[in-house]
Amino acid sequence: MNVRPSAIILQDERVLTLRYCYGDQEVYALPGGNPDPGECLSQALARELHEELGVQAEVSKMALCGEVIWPEVKKETLHIVFLAAITEGVPALNPVHTSALEMVWLPVAELGTKLLYPNVGGHIIGICEKAANPGHVGVIDQPYIK
């Protein structure tokens, strides 16, 4: 099972996402990536945010975690989603480190209508509304993305 840390970065009731297009599917990913050997999750996330978006960020507490299981390709990923804040810089895509098409600040209210990776829009809405502190959410309902 792979482990992928990612970030919820909030600004003016919007969440920072990276937009990808797979076939005819638009997917909005929380920024993050895979740890390098010997790297803890918060260090990996801070490094990924710097590489992909050119920002320094403070990685805070874990907001939620859950598994994506894709039997189609026999792949499982444990997603650990942290709250994070940009402490320096203005985010801009670095095409050397990401294949994202663009950076999108999605309104929190729209998270339930978009395909996210990981697909936790409803949980993020609950966190933002202070109505939930989900912790482990179990298996994430993630449509297979080709």
From TrEMBL:
UniProt domain Nudix hydrolase: residue ranges: 1-129
Keyword annotations: Hydrolase
Keyword Hydrolase: yes
Family matches, as Pfam families: NUDIX (PF00293)
GO molecular function: hydrolase activity
InterPro entries in the cross-refs: Nudix_hydrolase, NUDIX_hydrolase-like_dom_sf, NUDIX_hydrolase_CS, NUDIX_hydrolase_dom
Cofactor(s) named in the record: Mg(2+)
Family affiliation: Belongs to the Nudix hydrolase family.
Descriptive protein name: ADP-ribose pyrophosphatase YjhB, NUDIX family
